[in-house]
Amino acid sequence: MNFRHDILPLKDRLYRLALRIVQNHEDAEDMVQETLLKVWNQRERWESIDSIEAFCMTICRNLSLDHLRLMENRHESLDEIPVERPDHHANPFEDTVRRSQLEQVRRIIDSLPEKQRSCVQLRDIEGKSYKEIANIMDITEEQVKVNIFRARQTIRGKFNA
How confident is the model at residue 80 (pLDDT cuts 50, 70, 90)? Predict the structure, then answer.
């Protein structure tokens, strides 16, 4: 196992997961840094870990949740800063409509309960399997499916309202 080749390439995925939880760019970057440090400090265990990616995602999720709880306990609000992604449409009107729809879906996802938000992030954005999500979040696959189902229902309902 090599940090540079096996773990460092995960930083973008870790960032997206942390951002979904803490909803703040700087805090998400901090969570990724802390995750990478924790993983590095556990390097003697790497060979015994089945999935280094799941291990990293679990650490990142737990650190992000801990950070979120700490922030809530301090009664500080988290700034909502949308993540901009390049969009290549030829028609400016379609481009504007699509950006507006994506922003609406992003706001709906951000308003979901944490477990639903994390499940959707890991499944629909990161492409993880139900089993991987269950391992990362330390819940059953059935709970993962229920959280995703409820999240998608909420997203669909609020988007079409």
Answer: very low
